[in-house]
Amino acid sequence: MFGLLLLAMVQIIVEVLPISSSGHMRLAAMVADYVGYPLSELPLYCDELLHGFTLVAVLLYFRRLWVPVVVRLWEVVGVWRAGEALRDTQKKLLQLVLRLAGWVTVSTVITVVGYSIIKLSGVGDVLVAPLVLAVGFCITGIVLVICPLFLGSSSRRPSTGLRLSGSGVASDQKNDADVHSREEKVAMEKLAHPELVEIQDASPEWAKPDRARKSEAHCKTIVIALAQVAACLLPGVSRFAMTVFAAIALGTSPRRAVQWSWLIFVPLMLGASVIHGVGRCLLADGNWFVFAPGFFVGCMLATSISYVLFALVMRLFQRRQSWILGLYMLVPLLLLMLIS
User: Fold this and answer.
1) Which residues of 99-108 are buried (b: 16+ CB within 10 A; e: fewer)?
2) Is residue 116 over pLDDT 90?
3) Are 233 and 220 in contact (CB under 8 A)?
4) Burial 255-276 (b: 16+ CB within 10 A, else e)
5) Which of 258, 223, 224, 252 is nearest to 18 (CA)?
6) Do 225 and 264 form a contact (C-beta atoms < 8 A)?
7) Looking at residues 16-34, what average pLDDT do you find?
């Protein structure tokens, strides 16, 4: 059980980092075999169940982003039940939520279809050699190193990333003063829910016609979703890194790039954890270790660590220091060279 718990904790911790959790899990198994202490591979249902712990860490970090939205949506439900007319701000809130839901749905469909094609084609079963894993690590490292090059030469002081949004977070809004255009700031104040507006791209072309902005948003959503699918082709390629890089290359700020990267991944994580993870765990034989108190405590400890590491990753992206994570990718490459 100790070996399975160790693998589970590593999976939870590494999954919030843009360094390929699946690649590191495969590398950990190779290193364990090399030192003569082979580790039992995590069952597929257990691996998918662990997505739930990662999801908890991510949702807790972004709580200032989605909790106010849920509260205001609950107020809208109360207005409906009372038979009263919705205010303009409530109508705009619903429009934005539906628009975001549409983008996330499109991204989810593209990802599911692309992943299914990859699985059915058997490409993933062929690309299992250590050399392929090394190539994947190289791609992830290069992407992380060149990410800051797409951010321009702005001298804006980066935000700490510890406070994402909310009308009461004055310091965060102050840091974003020269990111948002004047028109967008006015719109945020009128909408009275800046935590939702912050998810959208802070493009300097805010004054574009609605149709042009919607078309541009749809194109960005498709490109980021395709980047998410592309990360499934090779082991060692980080989904997190690829989607953030795609978003930044399309002109999105680092913070919003990270938000989008996880926003489009939440439905996939939730479905995998609840349907495949919990469902198969209840039906599988020999899964007693999942329900052991020690296993749960260890996973919660890993969730706490992943929360802290995710905050650090957000800060690195905002400070244009993702190249540090890119340089780290030399470590798994060196390990592969030593054991191969």
Assistant:
1) ebeebbeebb
2) no
3) no
4) bbbbbbbbbbbbbbbeebbeeb
5) 258
6) yes
7) 87
pLDDT at 177 over 60: no
Distance (Å, whole) CA 52 – CA 41: 19
Buried b (16+ CB within 10 A) or exposed e, 188-221: beebebbbbbbbbbbbeebeeeeeebeebbeebb
Amino acid, res. 281 = C
Q: What is the rounded distance in angstroms from the CA atom of residue 42 to the CA atom of residue 281?
A: 12
Burial label for 93, CB within 10 Å (0-12, 13-18, 19+), is buried
Q: What does DSSP assign to residue 272?
A: I
pLDDT of residue 71: 92
Cα of 157 vs its chain's centroid, Å: 24
Q: How many CA atoms lie within 13 A of 311 on its CB side?
A: 13
Interval 236-249 mean pLDDT: 94
Q: What is the pLDDT, as a whole number, of residue 1?
A: 60
